[in-house]
Specification:
With about 400 residues, the chain is α/β, with parallel strands linked by helices. The protein is built from twelve helices and 14 strands. Strand 13 and strand 14 form a beta hairpin. Helix 1 crosses helix 6, helix 4 packs across helix 5 and helix 9 packs antiparallel against helix 10. It is elongated, with a radius of gyration of 25 Å. The termini are far apart.
Length: about 400
């Protein structure tokens, strides 16, 4: 056990695990517990967590709607970077953890708590993300991770603990067998049959999207307006950041967009299979690259692409509050000054198809130069000969020296 703890702030969902943790902390550390429940757009009512926490004897309860902050300050900056982990994962779980860590520390400071706690297991990435964030923001904070201390290592043992300690838990019939995490950006599924990477996910597992086969036979068109690299309007309607993502999730899900089934490399060293639904994020990624394609300078765009894997790795591994991520963010945000305009999309049976892009003031696409028709001297094709010879110079020298391929 760690040093004496008087008060601890717990990231609390109101579910089985964190309900047990509340009582376990009180019993094991003889301390006061403060709970923090974040509404990240997970699609469930968070207010019932108040009554559950009160029933457990918690006196200080924080329940907060952080949806707008989540999308504005975390999701949007990440999408300016076009961040994808290992070529596929849009980092839906990873990007929510820095905000939760920040609020845990802020509440600890407000309530004079000397420790924070979370319900992440000792096998996953979330323990790292929560704790790296906490230590970056308050170096001397004590972190209690019950899953690394107790011997309650199964759902049955947790339920038995509840029975022995008079903790009321909802035992839903037909409860999903999967370990799930949701926020406005995505919902994830792990465990149960998904632990066999050869087994196809069951259709009734998916909650946010229809299957592409059952999506409408008529395409849905939509127009996204960008300012400074962020979406500010959909079909001409100006929306707040979290409203943008909510609408994109609804339209994308109805068109079978955003399903993903991958095996990823966890930071802690193991491979893990996960299934994800990220309908809005999938649309955002395609559209952002489309508006950048006409507004970003070529070398700037290529530099961003070369930095993106490192940025995505930092987010995935929990280094959001690290100086290197903030340095990269500064560079990335600086590239977005001219990323303004509109993108027109066609959504059809799981596909996001870019059918138009325009920027009235910031487009670098020059039709007079790019045309295959008469360009009235805008581009002298003879110039290409010298350009090619200069770029071939080192290749010709090497060949003359006998360095044949």
């Amino acid at each position: 056990m760690s040093s004496k703890v008087n008060k601890v702030v717990l990231a609390y969902s109101g579910g089985l695990d964190t309900s047990v943790i509340v009582k376990w902390l009180m019993e094991t550390y003889n301390c006061e517990v403060v709970t923090f429940t974040a509404d990240l757009g997970q699609g469930e009512e968070v207010e019932p967590a108040r009554a559950k926490a009160e029933a457990l004897g918690v006196k200080q309860i924080f329940i907060e709607d952080v949806r707008e902050e989540f999308v504005r300050d975390y999701v949007f900056p990440m999408f300016r970077a076009n961040a994808i982990y290992e070529g596929e994962y849009l980092l839906g779980t990873s990007i929510a953890r820095p905000l939760i860590a920040k609020r845990l520390i802020e509440i600890a400071n407000e309530t004079d708590a000397d420790a924070i706690s979370h319900g992440a297991t000792g096998k996953g990435n979330d323990q790292v993300r929560f704790e790296l964030g906490a230590y970056a923001l308050k170096p001397g904070v004590q972190v209690i991770a019950p899953w690394r201390e107790w011997d309650l290592n199964s759902r049955e043992s947790l339920l038995a603990y509840c029975d022995n300690h008079g903790i009321e838990v909802e035992k839903k019939k037909g409860k999903s067998p999967y370990s799930m995490d949701a926020n406005l950006l995505h919902i994830s599924y792990e465990g149960d049959m998904l632990e066999d990477p050869w087994a196809e996910a069951e259709e009734d597992m998916w909650r946010w999207t229809v299957s592409p086969e059952n999506a409408p036979d008529i395409a849905t068109y939509m127009e996204l307006t960008y300012e400074g690299g962020d979406i500010v309007a959909i079909d001409g309607e100006h929306l707040k950041p979290h409203e943008v993502l909510l609408k994109l999730n609804t339209v994308g899900g109805a068109n079978g967009i955003g399903r993903l089934d991958i095996v990823e490399n966890r930071f802690v060293g193991m491979k893990s299979r996960g299934c994800y639904e990220t309908p809005g994020g999938t649309i955002m990624m395609r559209a952002h690259r489309a508006i950048e394609s006409i507004t970003l300078d070529r070398e700037v765009a290529h530099l961003k692409d070369s930095l993106m894997p490192k940025y995505a790795e930092l987010v995935y591994n929990g280094f959001w509050w690290a100086p290197e991520r903030e340095a990269l963010q500064g560079l990335i945000d600086g590239t977005q000054k001219y990323v303004n305009g509109k993108v027109r999309l066609k959504l059809y049976k799981g596909n996001v198809i870019v059918v138009g892009r325009m920027s009235e003031n910031d487009s670098l696409f020059d039709e007079k130069i790019a045309t295959f028709e008469e360009d009235d001297g805008a581009y002298d094709q003879k110039d290409a000969a010298g350009f090619i010879k200069l770029n071939a110079l080192r290749l010709r020298i090497a060949a003359d020296k006998g360095r044949l391929l």
